[in-house]
Structure formats: structure tokens, C-alpha cells
Design a protein that fits this description.
Blueprint lengths: L4 H19 L13 H24 L27 H17 L2 H28 L3 H7 L10
Helix pairs in contact: 1-4, 2-3, 3-4
Amino acid sequence: MKRSIPDVWWVVTQFVLMGALLFSPPVWPIAALERVHGAGVVIAVAGLVLSGVAAWQLRAADSFTPMPTPREDAKLLSTGMYGRVRHPIYSCLLLSALGVAMAMGSVLHALLFGVLWLFFNAKAAHEEAKLAEKFADYAQYAARTPRFIPLPKS
């Protein structure tokens, strides 16, 4: 599939928001978050590592693209991390962003994390519409698999 300009803007916006989260100075510090700085750093790094694992799973299935529109030769991946959540890369990037917000400990970073959550929710919804067009069984997969937060196994 040809990449459309809107797809590029989804990716550009994602990088701008993540850059703002990473490189903005702490504004309006939250004193209570000083105690969780170290945990925030650990969570941020863990989120990045796990997002790399999720990307590797997509790449191994020849389905990786940063764009919301799936590749022509993409396969619907529903095992591994994709068996637990529909968007594990977004989930893990959000986990990393939460860690950064905790480590930075400011109102600005908490707000940027909230904006990033809303952004990934909108990007996932856009992507899911494209996936539903491409894969006839996407609706069943979506019905049994949460978007971002894995449920406990029963």
C-alpha cells in the first residue's frame, strides 16, 4: 500500500510528542514524585526494551511499519505480545512515557503523558479501521484482545 500523507503526520506527531516529553524541562515540580524518580527511570527503560520486543515480533512476521496503514504483505499477528494486547508497541511506549513522567516529576510531564495517551488512542483507532479493512477476522481478534492494557490470564 502506498503511504499517505496522513500516515506520515501520525508518525511525525508521535515523534514530536515523545520528544517534548523527553526534552522538556520539569515545569511545576510535583514533590511527591521525587521519591519515585528511580522507579520512573526503570519503568521508562523497561518500556523501551519491551517496545523493541514487540517491534521485533512484527518484523519477524514481515508486518512491521511505523505507519498506521498496514503493509500490502502484512499478516495479522495474534500471538506473543500481540496475543495479549492489540498494540503492544504503543502500550510499551506509553509505559516508557509514564516512567519518564514519573522520573521528571512535573505537572508538564504528567500533562504530556496524558496527551500522548490520547494521541495513541486516536492513532490506534485509525489503525484499527485500516486493519479491519484488510483482515476479515480482525473484529474477532479485537473483541478478545484489549487495546493497550493486558488482562490477567484466566
